[in-house]
Design a protein that fits this description.
single chain, Aminopeptidase, seven-stranded mixed β-sheet
Length: about 160
């Protein structure tokens, strides 16, 4: 009988580079029914402004989070996605932990995002410490209701690190 040794995963969260534009676009397309669309130029700008974190597993990109700079200490998550086959593997939590550190380092005290009401991702945001602070409906959301999730950064513990 052959018994395999459990593999040791090499995971890291890094600042996204402009060279990762095609990966971010590819994952955005894969999750197109769940994510809002950000044009290529917007993704390129976010990467060049260091507003994207990429989680890697065994040196391969496995997900990302992209945010916009808000006013009054509020950071807005515009997109967050992890490879389908890696859902429920804690990658999203590690990515979010690193994003919390980046938000704190950037002087933000609140993280906010919108998530369509019918998506399973709402469970993730609640489990991650976010509180549902509203239900909204915009013309651009095709009549779908959006949950607004908010996280007070001073209330959370940040345990991840970001590598340059």
């Amino acid at each position: 009988m052959i018994v395999s040794q459990p593999s040791i995963l090499d995971r890291a969260v890094v600042v996204g580079l402009p060279s990762q534009l095609s990966y971010v676009m590819q994952l955005q397309r894969r999750w197109s029914q769940e994510l809002g669309f950000i044009p290529r130029a917007g993704l390129r700008r976010a990467l060049s402004e260091k507003r994207v974190l990429v989680v890697r597993e065994n040196r391969w990109p496995a997900g990302y989070v992209l945010w916009t700079r808000g006013r009054r200490g509020i950071l807005h998550i515009a997109q967050a996605a992890v490879e389908v086959e890696l859902l429920r593997s804690k990658l999203g939590s590690e990515l979010l932990g690193a994003m919390r550190l980046a938000a704190r380092d950037g002087g933000y005290s609140i993280v906010r995002l919108l998530c369509r009401e019918e998506l399973e991702a709402n469970g993730f945001w609640g489990d991650a410490g976010f509180v549902r602070t509203g239900v909204l409906s915009y013309a651009t959301s095709r009549g779908r209701r959006l949950n607004e999730w908010t996280l007070q950064l001073e209330d959370c513990r940040c345990v991840a690190s970001v590598r340059a």
